[in-house]
Amino acid sequence: MGIVNVSPDSFSGDGLRNVDEAVMRAKHLAADGADIIDVGGESTRPSSLPISGDEELRRVIPVVERLSEELSIPVSIDTYKWEVARRAVDAGAQIINDVWGLKKEPRLAELAAEGGVPIVVVSNQREQPCRWIMPVVLADLRRAIKSAMKAGVAWENIIIDPGIGFGKTPEQNLEVVWRLNELKVLRRPILLGTSRKFMLDLPPGQRLEGTAASVAIGISKGADIVRVHDVREIVRVCRMSDAIVRKRLRKK
Questions:
Q1: Which residues belong to the active site?
Q2: What confidence tens digit (pLDDT) does each residue in 162-181 have?
Q3: What is the rounded distance in angstroms from the CA atom of residue 172 to the CA atom of residue 176?
């Protein structure tokens, strides 16, 4: 999953300010081997301020429309706002990525069910930090899965994400990656998003190697999808990790 941030204040320093730049970046990511493009219009860094739904719509909908027409791979909308998700799905988005795991807006599950699209539910502890992280993440994802199914989302359309960086300490982030295999009990595909996050004491632009290490270990622990900025390099890490862990050798 390649990241396209249409937000000027992205923590990773890759925020884009106009449609053409975002479309060009998405096309580069697709050419580099991305299987999904994830479009987001609101920064999720801890110190960021929320933006209005209208502003988020202005940023993301033209991008989703263009990408849905010009790319052959699925487009995901990274939002927790119902109206943004609805408009994005209408514009061609094929996945909803909810960083609040249906806590802020449970209706996103109904939207996913009605549209027959997958939904990613993220375990987010920003409003309620905890000490013992894995039991909380497991319970949170169970709640989200139950909410999604109650709303009519097909079992095969639910994807879980433990939420690296969302209300967790650096030590807890590392623990989640190391214990990622414990999420297999939920029997849902696992998405892992460690890219350029605060796992090393380096600026975001110098975290490629740390991202690669976390991705390789994450795959060994059961990650099925990885959400990254540096697609070309991480695709190679994924292919080698798959070859070793899953005995799946892909040449391209």
A1: 197, 227
A2: 999 999 999 999 999 999 99
A3: 6
